Amino acid sequence: MRVGFIGLGNMGGPMALNLIKAGHALVVHDVRPAAAKPHLERGAKWAESPKAAARESELILTSLPGPTEVEAVALGTDGILAGAVPGSVYADLSTGSPTVMRKIHAAFKAKGVHVLDAPVSGGVWGAQRGTLQVMVGGEESIYREVKAVLQAVGDKVGYMGPIGAGTIAKLVHNMVSIATRAVVAEGFTLGVKAGVTPEALLEAIRGASFGQGLMLSQMLPNVIFKGDFDTVRFALKLARKDIGLATALAREYDVPMPMAAVAEQIMVEALARGWGDKDSTAPWLLQEEAAGVRVRETKT
Length: 300
Ligand code: NAD
Description:
Blueprint: E1 2-6, H1 12-21, E2 25-29, H2 37-41, E3 45-46, H3 50-55, E4 59-62, H4 67-75, H5 80-83, E5 89-92, H6 98-109, E6 114-117, E7 120-121, H7 123-129, E8 133-137, H8 140-150, E9 156-161, H9 165-193, H10 198-207, H11 214-224, H12 236-252, H13 258-272, H14 284-291
Parallel strand pairs: 1-2, 1-4, 2-3, 4-5, 5-6, 8-9
Antiparallel strand pairs: 7-8
Bound molecules: nicotinamide-adenine-dinucleotide.
Residues 6-12, 30-32, 35, 63-66, 69, 72-73, 94-95, 120-121, 123-124 line the site of nicotinamide-adenine-dinucleotide (NAD).
């Protein structure tokens, strides 16, 4: 396929190289022309602007710092919209804003150009190896048309829903990943200050339920999505005891653990609801109540 690629940075650079390797004809552009050197050496063509790149492409991809750059490159003077051919597809691989992507989708639709938001996850390492997770939002038929090309960028390409859904999934992932780091930092500082080596802690956590990924493989699909908080696998009163013992240990060693303290208070609230003999996942119901939404499976 003739692919335009704009933004050849830490992620875009290797992603564009993988597209060349997969046999696609690339037209590339970046505000830093030097970033295109490895691509031009492998047969890619240089475009002077996003407009020029779009004019020659069936699929136009961008990997830019954020929503400000994406909006400027998509809708600005000499931008993609100015050059895109009706029937072509524009997919943004950056991490941006669902609102901006919906605005771009509407503006492009008027010209008969399809838009997908397709943020990626897996870091520079994943971009180099083509092992990224690509999270795609937009019309499903258009997703199916370009899925094979996106598979050169990531070996895990998934359809998330209408335009903006890819970006929402990506932001949820990054929030979970980044917030978890704060909890892990609390745990390791407590463990080390209380006398266990970091290597031993890593071994213990890796081999235990959290490290074995049971939250994703079991708890979410088999308990939460099914709303089964009454089958007790690990009683809430026992989980509350454990987090209480850990925060007590942190007090003994003067280790601040603000994230754990909040989690403990949520457990206390769940116990006060009379849920001690429910499963330890029951506090999930408090968040659902606060958020005004339920997280249950949609495909049965
Ligand atoms: P980067 O800054 O290395 O790359 C951005 C590229 O866009 C640069 O080459 C820059 O010159 C170019 N650029 C900026 N403005 C431009 C414009 N107006 N026209 C043309 N080119 C322009 O950033 P990155 O780390 O490659 O990240 C790109 C996107 O991917 C970001 O949205 C980021 O959040 C997301 N992301 C990054 C990682 C990571 O590990 N680096 C992982 C997943 C997702």
